[in-house]
Amino acid sequence: MLTAGLGTLAFxxxxxxxxxxxxxxxxxxxxxxxxxEFEKNYTDAPAxxxxxxxxxxxxxxxxxxxxxxxxxxAFGADYSxxxxxxxxxxxxxxxxxxxxxxxxxxxxxxxxxxxxxxxAYGAPMQNIPNLQVGDHAYVExxxxxxxxxxxxxxxxxxxxxxILSDVPRYPDEQSDDRILLMMTCNPIxxxxxxxxxxxxxxxxxxxxxxxxxxxxxxxxxxxxxxxQDTGRE
Length: 233
Fold this sequence. Notes:
CATH superfamily: Sortase
Number of strands: 8
Strand content: 25-35%
Shape: globular
């Protein structure tokens, strides 16, 4: 029994700590690679603008298609995770942060909603409950970076779909805000409920202007480490 117990503890340590560190580093690298692809494929042709001039590009319609990179400095200085369409367990959440395809696009008026694991598979959303008012999150697309600022959080039933509405919790209301919703399981070793964070849009930084100051070091270092000159300063 002692041997079995030690074996179980060792497995749990590997699955929920060491393996998460390894997979987390791999997912950070994958986010970096997508960012580099954005840099290489960038052109000056503008994306479609909304009525305030903020680029809002239509999100992909195929499941498991990467299209953005999420940066949350409060989750770690090198945190950069790829966002892919859909929230299926296999093919999306086991590799990426998942995007609710019936929610709004990055930067759009409404609710851009994503989810990720609290533990295992790189644990991309492990620290959602630790966010503080004023913490920033950045969503990078080929057009540039959308900056959001954390405002509040809550714990909800796993089937509480009203949080995905344009105005979370008020499905009949029409939003004037641009919201980033991030969600994960809660408590930490359970799927009994969901921990949800709400951040509001601050500003958009076009790719031509370079990465926002708070994440510039990690973005620029990774682009330089690619070993190729992108042709832009």
